[in-house]
Amino acid sequence: MEAGNNLLLGVTGGIAAYKSVELARLFRKAGLNVRVVMTDAATRFVTPMTFQAITGEAVRVDLFDPMHEAAMGHIELARWADHFLIAPASADFLARMANGLADDLLSTLCLVSTAPVSVAPAMNVNMWKHAATRKNIELLADRGVRILGPAVGEQACGDSGPGRMPEAAEIVSALMYSSAEGVFGGKKVMLTAGPTREAVDPVRFISNRSSGRMGFALAEAFAREGAEVVLVSGPVSLDTPPGVERIDVVSAQQMHDAVFDNLSGVDLFVGCAAVADYRPEHPSGQKIKKNANRMELSLVRNPDILAEVAALDNGPFTFGFAAETGALEENAKAKLVGKGLHMIAANLVGEGLGFDVEENALQVLWPGGETKLPMQDKKSLARALVGIVAQQYSNHLHQQGGSV
Ligand code: PMT
């Protein structure tokens, strides 16, 4: 969005509605025309008069408002909007949106409007984690609705975790930074994902437990933000996310070659693969027989793909992972500095953690800063992570005199 655009701001019933007053103010300050539609429940938290004073426009609540609806005001309102933001979006409203209900003005506008839609969910952490909400969010994201947040932290109810509406300034910067095609519109992102397999003989290999879920979720999240995405994947049994170009490889050397053969024009490189650090020095051409009581396997180092990409002159922005079973922050910082990366996600792994599970938690570090993303399903985690990458990448470009 840019100054002069028309923003339709939907406000639903939740304590975070107070933050939307600041949101409307910041959007006005940024030069947008803002009109507000509230649900009945939202008016119990903030009065329409407050938004009217901030935006200088009449606030609409009622679908059957005779003054506006004489001329089909809701259709006119939907046509007026260049962008439609619902903040806060309560669990109830997301469920109604996902199911296409149109029983009040705001939900009706969701069906009528053809403008790009963003939602900033805000609810209790357990409501956010509930399977029904997860399904509704997936459905809306699949339909192209942009999900902003939720942020993590203390909640008004005293619980802590994901569910807070992002701060007004964060929402404004997410929507104003992004092009019409998304935050990463016009950018090319390459990711590695999954394990590699290092052949011992024609039927045996050395590998690890990576399922590829984290890397595939990230590839999908980047694609949803408008990036051209190339995913170099080890052997996994996952479907390719929509809009993602996939290159399948088996060994670390093949992953290395595929990355460097396709690196031209890549703006961001994300190393999420669990690449084998070593491979058998002399893989056997025949199946090895069990003749002796002992057998020794000589291993040699594989190339470090991420470190090599980070060492390139004028290379892409590099974001790596550090899978650690202990001393998480210390080891991740050593990899961030040692490999010369822009960002790293420290991932505590072990029995039931990180590898081959549905949920994950990360500590994200960059020079001079860090943030924690608590345990959540890998798709939600990937969306949150892409938001953090957007911020760091944008800072990086500004330092270089460019922009996202
Ligand atoms: O695939 P899932 O089951 O969803 O599990 C996700 C995950 C746990 C694999 C993922 O979140 C993760 O942590 N990936 C990194 C795994 C890893 O091998 O980390 P590392 O600390 O050994 O490597 C550090 C970084 O260097 C990683 O970005 C890795 O991709 C990269 N690397 C490592 C070795 C090598 N030869 N080449 C590399 O590019």
The whole-angstrom Rg is 24 Å
Q: Which ligands, by name, code or SMILES, are bound? A: ligand PMT
How would you sum up the major sheet? 8 strands, mixed
CATH class identity of the largest domain = Alpha Beta
Features:
19 strands; binds ligand PMT; five-stranded parallel sheet; Rossmann fold; elongated; eight-stranded mixed sheet
Describe the structure in your own words.
The chain is α/β, with parallel strands linked by helices and 404 residues long. The chain folds into two domains: 1-177, Flavin prenyltransferase-like (Rossmann fold, 3-Layer(aba) Sandwich), CATH 3.40.50; 182-284 and 297-399, CoaB-like (Rossmann fold). It contains 14 helices and 19 strands. A hairpin with a 2-residue loop joins strand 9 (198-201) and strand 10. The two termini are 13 Å apart. The relative contact order is 0.09. It binds ligand PMT. Ligand PMT binds at residues 192, 194, 210-215, 252, 271-275, 277, 302, 304-306, 320-323, 335, 347, 349, 354-356, 378. Residues 192, 194, 210-215, 252, 271-275, 277, 302, 304-306, 320-323, 335, 347, 349, 354-356, 378 line the site of ligand PMT.
